[in-house]
Amino acid sequence: MVEAMIEVEVVYAAVDRQVLLTVSVPAGTTIRGALLESGIGQQFSELNLAECPVGIFGKVIADPDTRAVQSGDRIEIYRPLLADPKEVRRLRAAKAAEAKARNQ
């Protein structure tokens, strides 16, 4: 009996380049399994595919080791943030308040 295959996309955007791969995997493959089968880890040595945060179509998946992919899924690999957006806004507001106080 032939195992049913489905196609999914695996996407990763590094600082200097981005890659989109289309991968055929057996039905029932987990998200992590699809990542490993895609071979994207060989293209980006900094990726730890066993632990990296991932999502499907922009929605973070909490359990990629158990959730099975569905045909047409776009698996996105997320990089860690370089700066916390809340902290950046807080610093910008403090700097603007300081400049305003100096000009009064």
Automatic annotation (TrEMBL):
Domain of life of the native organism: Bacteria
Matches recorded under InterPro entries: RnfH (IPR005346)
A Pfam family reported for this protein in Swiss-Prot or TrEMBL: Ub-RnfH
Family under the similarity heading: Belongs to the UPF0125 (RnfH) family.
PANTHER family xrefs: UPF0125 PROTEIN RATB
NCBIfam families: PRK01777.1
Alphabetical list of HAMAP family matching this protein: UPF0125_RnfH
Protein name according to UniProt: UPF0125 protein KVG88_10290
Organism the protein comes from: Pseudomonas azerbaijanoccidentalis
